[in-house]
Design goal:
Layout (H helix, E strand, L loop, with lengths): L1 E5 L5 E6 L8 E5 L12 H5 L7 H16 L4 E3 L1 H4 L5 H17 L2 E5 L15 H14 L7 H7 L5 E3 L5 E4 L4 H8 L3 H4 L9 H7 L10 H4 L2 H4 L12 H25 L26 H12 L6 E5 L6 H15 L2 E6 L13 H12 L1 H13 L8 H14 L9 E8 L7 H11 L8 E9 L3 H8 L6 E5 L5 H23 L8 H11 L3 H13 L4 H10 L7 H15 L7 H20 L6 H8 L3 H8 L6 E2 L9 E2 L3 H6 L14 H19 L19 H7 L2 H17 L8 H19 L3 H14 L8 H19 L9 H5 L6 H4 L8 E7 L16 E3 L5 E4 L5 E6 L5 E6 L5 E6 L5 E6 L3 E6 L5 E6 L5 E6 L5 E6 L3 E6 L5 E6 L5 E6 L5 E6 L3 E6 L6 E7 L5 E6 L5 E6 L3 E6 L5 E6 L5 E6 L5 E6 L3 E6 L5 E6 L5 E6 L5 E6 L4 E5 L5 E4 L13 H8 ...
Parallel strand pairs: 3-4, 3-5, 5-6, 8-11, 8-12, 9-10, 10-11
Antiparallel strand pairs: 1-2, 1-4, 6-7, 13-14, 15-76, 16-17, 17-18, 18-19, 20-21, 21-22, 22-23, 24-25, 25-26, 26-27, 28-29, 29-30, 30-31, 32-33, 33-34, 34-35, 36-37, 37-38, 38-39, 40-41, 41-42, 42-43, 44-45, 45-46, 46-47, 48-49, 49-50, 50-51, 52-53, 53-54, 54-55, 56-57, 57-58, 58-59, 60-61, 61-62, ...
Length: 1520
């Protein structure tokens, strides 16, 4: 970009071409070219020194330079002379980037040569009349009719308008109403909103009445408006606009895709300062907070590194009002990037879960250039919502903004406003956010500024003090001069009283400065007191004067601002109850007040009056009456369906604090209020939750296809609230839950209904956390029955959360069908299975059950001599192994729940463990006797560790404490409060003086335990995810930590500084360990790898891969020779530390065969009755199912497997197991009378079995390779088999002899078929041929050639006159019975299978995931079905209405004009298995988990049988 440079003497000259990074700040001129364009000063004129020869054009340039200099700018740009129009490349670049040049300009001057400011008479001094004097010229200005000036109006953040004389007329903001009237351009566009917010038609309409000198320019001048590029072709005329539309359409398609990506980012819709939720909230009045606002502006404009401004102040000092003012100011200027206003009890506004995603959506909306990069980030990371706040911030904010280079003004300011950080309920998130926000300083291309407000709470103060002073600005509201505050409060009162005067008709001087001064004094600097007082007075209406007296008379000097606020709240409450009630009535009213107000202030998310009434089971009129006189405290909307809100959170603090709310008639006991709300939630859910609550009907209905309005009607806000917060209110009530209580009964009756509702609400991300929290509330001694049930519920969610969040009704289908029989929910909720489903039986694979990954353990411990190793377990025991033999040695029992942690004393005599039943236990290793069992905590014990001298045993738990115990006696020594954060891991320093704890709040704390104190020595703060493991180095000088943020960090324990970060894992790091010599560090992760690192250099040494599940523990043996690792599936592996090779896997204990079922539960689980017993006994095969087939009479089902066995099933129960083959079963076929079964095997044989007895009647030997297929002839007189040996053999099924061998193929045979009249047999092969053999004449087989690739399938017509074949060459060929070609159909993809209809009028064939029907008469495709799976076997049913496939049955009745059939031949349903769905009549019915994908399918009526790769077989019967 070439500029003009202004000199002090008033001259100017052209500069060099600047690149984006070196481009200085500049002004830019917007003007209309002179009618005689030759009078404009050109590039050549300047280059040749002829500029002054064109005085009219020169004057415009002179004006721009002079004005720029006045505004402190040395450089400026004018289109007439800064572009060398002789260079087509330069002209192309200028036109395509001009929108960007105008947008990036520091100042834009619109010079209107046809508007004069000197028309007004000399005696006119009124500003309004002065404006009116030139307004008519302004409205008629040619500038508003030209094409190029449209982008010059819209691109810059501000445009200043000047008259012909150079007089400033105003700017785009001050004149926006007039400009809007002239142009019709929306205010939002004039204020700088992104062009993408406006439709294509809207933007085109803005240019509709504008002209350009050349036709082409009417298109070219809009390139920036639509952000498209196209080459300039002057001379193309109107075609330019056609090309523009084509580019716009392409861009529109891109924008639609980006819109879709952005729509996947969840947001808190009410977080913005200008959301409907916040629309009535005030900003600072004119002439108030002036010094503070100026200070904020200076910070924003300063070039220094202070990227964060923290405005702090006590409650009620006006922080949020300032924040809204700052946000509004910069929103209007166009440089507000995003904002988020926290609100405690505001649902999504009370936590940081959607903070970053909300900010990113706003950024994408406000800054189109950032929009592209944000969308790219979402596209690259679909699960971005589940990333840590740090990673979200990096990927959605920092990275996209860092890519704004050439197209964005250098060092432009982008402001983010975050209000009320103290109202974010997660202290952990607050800590992280302060760290994360400070990374704004890392951006060098723009100035990202973050404005934060909060109360000065210790946690937040600590966070900001850790940011270097050069990177932050801090302003404390209490430190503002009292005189300034009083001045602002006076203006505030006067402004509000003027409104009251107008409304009530009071005197112009009411209430008088003396009263205002007194009220200012009483306010004690609190704007919340002032605003509450004004509302109180205004709501008094005729009694406004009386209420002023109440406030003044109630004032107590010297009590402080908080007490004054308490007094006004008390007065408001007392005045809301009329005095003419008797005492009994007054008490009833007060009780209602407490119930209603208490509920409102403790709500986790705002509700409307209507919803609150339903939640509390209270008449709506009672709610309305209670709140009628409380507008002073609550923002009560005009409609009862709109949310209620507190004007200020200080009322919540007041009402719940017995010391502050001195009138106990109004004080609300917080725990009792939470208990009442928990009960209300439970009652509401119990009454309203039910199966298929939205009446969707089809169980495969995807949530994305459900009308949100339907969900809102069926699950209204009150019910949604109850579903989301019933557990949270229960927790906050402090209630002790017991077996058989209402919560237990609700859970057992409505858990699935709740799951369905929570997923319909789109809150699937919350369901696991809610049930995990509920689980944590259960105590072993009070919830012995409920604990295992809730654990099973968590397993249920863990396994099926991915499908039920997409199709919520699968809760009653897939989840109940495929949950293991060991899960109690399968039988508890069996009556709630979806009404489409009659019965589900799973013959599970006849193999050891897969190990449970849900309830994994997290600890290993070696004995000091390295000869034995201990581990926790998924059952109630510590396990011991011999390291050398890897054999099991012993179990140490005594707990009532799984063992999550384990430790061995330094002398090797004692093993200790922490259990999920909240106990700590210790055993004598040698005698296996239990030394003590301590009820140590009120939450799961996550870590136990011995001190180096063995005298102390420490335990860390979910109850946020670390307890120290006398290791010999089990007596408690002390207990350390871990600062309200759950302890995930704990470790002693080598000298025993320190304990390090790692917590879910992402902090590592070092506690001094060397004496009686429990002093917090230091906090290590740097991870952005929960800390899962911490370990000291052998010398105690360093600590290694592993975190959810997928990193390890090395720390200096003395200085508390981070030394190094190790990156490489792709999922959470669950375990870390130092080697005995501190040379290496080992880490284990959910990514199923163990990684070895150089502890000094930080480089990766080795990656150990053998685990099939995530890692939870790693440990070096004391002798340094071995590394042990354990995984979620309870398996322990040993590795050689010299070679890093696998030494072996430790043997399984007996209980490992029943993972997830604690021994104490096995008896109760098995006692659930006959259904449980039958399910337990039903076993499939031990390897993949290769074939399932029903007998012709439908009585029997045969299954074959790679385990070489065949099973005969009498409908859904095992009848016989047939053994005899020595290799995989490749095919099975029943005889027409169902009495015999033929089996083809990879052992080169065919066997015939008696269906009833299971006895082998004949074994056919003769093939020299695997037998691929077997088939009975239609009359049952022959058996044919085909093989990899390229031959077909015929057998007599009655006497068991070979009847002949058919040869002619040169490759493996893919299929065989008999003609319906039994005269012919045809086969197809990978050798590209079809072989047709006449069984009666014994003539030589005819080789049918024509295909050019493997032939997949052959079939005869019903009259045996035609043969059809299909091939990998994408063709279908027809042959006569003589072998002559009879036609060909060409497709575009390989054809898998084909067949004729019974009347020979149709031919069906399958390609990819589609089945097509071909009419043989018309030679046209008459229909197709997208079946969602590759069909490899295809045949018509005898009635012709169905296609029977290896994936099930397809109904084609709708595709046939007429299909002769009898009523008895019509099936109740067509059942078909796609890749991941079981369909009923082509509707998705049951989702299939990965392990239940079908390898083969057979159907009979309303029953479908599916074989699976594990060896399992599913029998699913649908209701008729």
């Amino acid at each position: 970009m070439r500029l003009l440079q202004w000199n002090e003497d008033g001259t100017f000259q052209l500069t060099k071409d600047f690149t984006g990074e070196e481009l200085p700040s500049y002004a830019i001129l917007s003007h209309t070219w002179l009618l005689d364009s030759d009078e404009e000063v050109t590039f050549d004129d300047l280059a040749q020194g002829k500029a002054k020869s064109k005085p009219t054009g020169y004057a415009k340039i002179q004006f721009c330079g002079t004005q720029a200099a006045k505004d402190g700018l040395e450089f400026f740009w004018v289109d007439t002379c800064c572009i060398n129009r002789n260079s087509s490349a330069e002209l192309q670049e200028a036109i395509t980037t001009m929108f960007t040049w105008y947008r990036n300009a520091t100042r834009c001057y619109a010079y209107l040569t046809d508007v004069s400011a000197n028309k007004a008479p000399d005696d006119v001094t009124n500003d309004y009349l002065l404006v009116r004097s030139w307004e008519s010229d302004f409205r008629r200005s040619r500038w508003f009719t030209r094409g190029w000036t449209l982008q010059e109006l819209l691109a810059p953040a501000s445009v200043e308008f000047f008259s012909y004389e150079g007089t400033r007329l105003g700017d785009k903001k001050s004149l926006q109403s007039i400009i809007h009237e002239i142009t019709g351009i929306p205010y939002e566009a004039l204020r700088g909103d992104a062009m993408t917010k406006f439709t294509v038609d809207q933007r085109l309409s803005w240019a509709a009445n504008r002209q350009t000198k050349r036709k082409e320019d009417m298109a070219y001048c809009l390139l920036g408006i639509f952000n498209v590029f196209m080459p300039l072709l002057y001379g193309e005329g109107d075609h330019a606009f056609e090309r523009l539309r084509q580019e716009i359409d392409k861009k529109h398609a891109e924008n639609v895709k980006r819109d879709h990506l952005l729509a996947t980012i969840p947001i808190a819709s009410e977080a913005a300062f200008n959301s409907r939720h916040n629309q009535h909230e005030p900003t600072c009045l004119p002439n108030t907070r002036t010094e503070l606002l100026q200070e904020i502006e200076r910070w924003l404009e300063s070039p220094d590194e202070r990227c964060i401004f923290w405005l702090n102040g006590i409650a009620g000092t006006g922080k949020s009002t300032v924040a809204r003012t700052v946000a509004r100011t910069h929103y209007n200027r166009g440089d507000l990037g995003a904002n988020f206003f926290f609100s405690r009890g505001g649902g999504d506004l009370s936590n940081a879960n959607k903070l970053v995603t909300t900010l990113s959506r706003q950024l994408a909306s406000r800054f189109p250039l950032a929009r592209r990069y944000i969308c790219e980030a979402v596209n690259e990371e679909e699960d971005i919502m589940n990333l840590s706040l740090k990673d979200q911030w990096q990927r959605l904010i920092i990275n996209p903004l860092s890519k704004l280079h050439s197209d964005y003004p250098p060092r432009s300011t982008v402001l983010i406003v975050i209000d009320a950080l103290d109202e974010c309920e997660s202290e952990r998130d607050v800590r992280v956010l302060i760290r994360v926000l400070s990374t704004a300083r890392l951006l060098t291309n723009i100035r990202l500024r973050v404005f934060v407000t909060s109360r000065p709470e210790i946690l937040i103060r600590h966070g900001f003090t850790k940011i270097p002073e050069v990177e932050r600005a801090v302003f404390t509201l209490q430190e503002i001069s009292p005189d300034i505050v009083d001045h602002d409060l006076s203006i505030f009162f006067e402004n509000h009283f003027s409104t009251i005067r107008e409304e009530r008709g009071f005197d112009d001087d009411w209430p008088g400065m003396r009263i205002i001064k007194r009220l200012v004094e009483i306010s004690c600097g609190l704007f919340i007191w002032a605003s509450t007082a004004c509302r109180f007075i205004r709501e008094g209406r005729r009694l406004a004067k009386r209420r002023i007296k109440i406030l003044i008379n109630g004032y107590r000097s010297g009590v402080g601002p908080e007490k004054q606020l308490d007094l006004i709240y008390t007065n408001v409450l007392r005045n809301s109850i009329q005095q003419d009630y008797n005492e009994k009535e007054r008490q009833e009213l007060c009780a209602m007040f407490r119930e209603v107000l208490g509920s409102i202030v403790i709500l986790c998310s705002s509700l409307s009056m209507e919803s609150l009434a339903k939640l509390l089971a209270m008449p709506l009129d009672d709610i309305k009456d209670t709140l009628a006189d409380l507008h002073t405290i609550f923002n009560i909307p005009p409609k009862t369906s709109y949310p209620l809100r507190l004007h200020h959170p200080t009322f919540r603090d007041f009402l719940l604090n017995k010391e502050r709310c001195s009138d106990l008639d109004f004080w609300v006991d917080e725990k009792q209020a939470h208990q009442a709300l928990a009960d209300s939630c439970l009652a509401l859910m119990s009454k309203n939750l039910k199966s298929d609550i939205c009446g969707l009907g089809s169980p495969g209905t995807l949530l994305e296809n459900v009308d949100p309005n339907l969900i809102q009607r069926c699950i209204p806000p009150d019910l949604q609230y109850a579903c989301l917060y019933w557990v949270e209110h229960c927790r906050l009530s402090g209630r002790r839950l017991t077996d058989g209580d209402p919560f237990d009964l609700f859970f057992r009756e409505h858990f699935l209904h709740w799951l369905e509702a929570i997923n319909l609400m789109g809150k699937s991300a919350e369901m696991s956390a809610i049930i995990r929290l509920y689980h944590a509330l259960l105590m072993p001694d009070s919830n012995a029955r409920q604990l295992p049930f809730v654990k099973d519920a968590r397993r249920f969610i863990f396994k099926f959360q991915n499908i039920i969040k997409r199709a919520p009704l699968q809760t009653y289908c897939a989840a109940l069908s495929f949950i293991p029989p060991s899960n109690e929910l399968k039988f508890q909720f069996r009556s709630q299975i979806h009404p489409w489903i009659k019965d589900v039986r799973i013959a599970e694979a006849d193999v050891p059950a897969a190990k449970d990954e849900f309830n994994y353990v997290s600890d290993l411990a070696f004995t000091p001599d390295s000869k034995q190793i201990a581990s926790g377990s998924n059952f109630e025991a510590v396990r011991f192994w011999d390291v050398a033999t890897k054999a099991t040695l012993a179990k140490y029992e005594g707990a009532t729940d799984k063992m999550s942690s384990v430790a061995i004393s330094p002398d090797g005599t004692t093993v200790a463990a922490g259990s999920d039943d909240f106990t700590v236990l210790a055993w004598d290793i040698k005698t296996r006797t239990l030394r003590y069992s301590i009820k140590a905590h009120s939450g799961w014990v996550n870590s136990v560790v011995f001190s180096p001298d063995g005298k102390i045993l420490a335990s860390g738990a979910m109850d946020e404490t670390v307890a120290l115990w006398d290791a010999s006696t089990g007596q408690e020594i002390k207990r350390i409060d871990n600062q309200s954060s759950c302890v995930n891991t704990a470790a002693f320093s080598p000298d025993g003086s320190l304990i390090a704890t790692g917590s879910v709040d992402q902090m590592i704390r070092l506690w001094d335990v060397s004496n009686d104190s429990d002093e917090l020595r230091i906090i290590l703060d740097g991870h952005s995810g929960a800390i899962n493991s911490v370990r000291f180095s052998p010398d105690g000088k360093r600590i290694i930590s592993g975190s959810d943020d997928m990193t390890l960090k090395l720390w200096d324990t003395a200085l508390g500084t981070e030394l190094m970060a190790f990156k490489g894992h792709t999922k959470r790091v669950m375990a870390v360990a130092f080697s005995w010599d501190a040379v290496h560090i080992a880490s284990g992760s959910e990514d199923k790898t163990v990684r070895i690192w150089d502890a000094v250099g930080g480089t990766a040494v080795a990656i150990l891969r053998d685990h099939t599940s995530g890692l939870n523990s790693v440990l070096f043996s004391p002798d340094g020779k071995l590394l042990a690792s354990s995984s979620f599936d309870d398996e322990v592996r040993l590795w050689d530390t010299k070679t890093w090779t696998l030494v072996g896997k430790l043997d399984d204990f007996e209980e490992d065969a029943n993972p997830g079922i604690l021994p104490s539960r096995q008896s109760s689980t098995l006692s659930t009755g006959e259904i449980m017993e039958s399910a337990k006994l039903l076993k499939g095969h031990s390897s993949e199912i290769t074939r399932v087939v029903f007998s012709p009479d439908g009585q029997w089902l045969a299954s074959g497997s790679q385990d070489a066995t065949i099973k005969i099933w009498l409908r859904k129960n095992e009848h016989r197991k047939l053994e005899g083959h020595s290799d995989s079963i490749n095919d099975l076929a029943f005889s027409p009378d169902s009495n015999l079964i033929a089996s083809a095997s990879a052992d080169n044989t065919v066997r015939l079995w008696n269906t009833s007895t299971g006895v082998v009647s004949h074994t056919f030997e003769g093939h020299s390779n695997s037998v691929l297929g077997v088939l009975f002839s239609p009359d049952g007189q022959l058996v044919a088999s085909c093989s990899n040996d390229t031959t077909i053999r015929l057998w007599d099924p009655f006497i068991g002899v070979a009847l002949g061998k058919i040869e002619g193929h040169t490759g493996p045979i893919r299929g065989i078929t008999f003609s319906p009249d039994n005269h012919f047999i045809a086969s197809c092969s990978v050798d590209t041929t079809v072989l047709l053999s006449d069984l009666e004449s014994n003539a030589a087989s005819v080789v049918l050639r024509g295909h050019s690739n493997a032939v997949n399938s052959v079939a005869f017509s019903s009259d045996s006159k035609l043969l059809v074949s299909c091939s990998e060459d994408s063709t279908i060929r027809f042959w006569s019975k003589s072998g002559a070609g009879a036609g060909i159909i060409r497709d575009t993809v390989p054809v898998s299978s084909t067949c004729f209809s019974p009347d020979s009028q149709l031919m069906a064939y399958s390609i990819d995931n589609t089945v097509k029907l071909w009419n043989l008469g018309s030679k046209y495709t008459v229909g197709s079905l997208n079946v969602g799976a590759i069909v490899r076997k295809l045949s018509f049913s005898s009635c012709g209405r169905y296609l029977e496939t290896d994936r099930g049955v397809l109904s084609i009745g709708s595709l046939r004009a007429h299909s002769p059939s009898s009523p008895s031949s019509i099936r109740p349903y067509s059942l078909f298995a796609t890749h991941d769905w079981l369909r009923r009549d082509m509707e998705n019915a049951i989702w299939l988990p990965n392990e239940y994908y079908a390898t083969d399918v057979a159907t009979w009526g309303n029953l479908i049988a599916m074989g699976h790769s594990s060896g399992a077989i599913s029998f699913i019967e649908f209701r008729i």
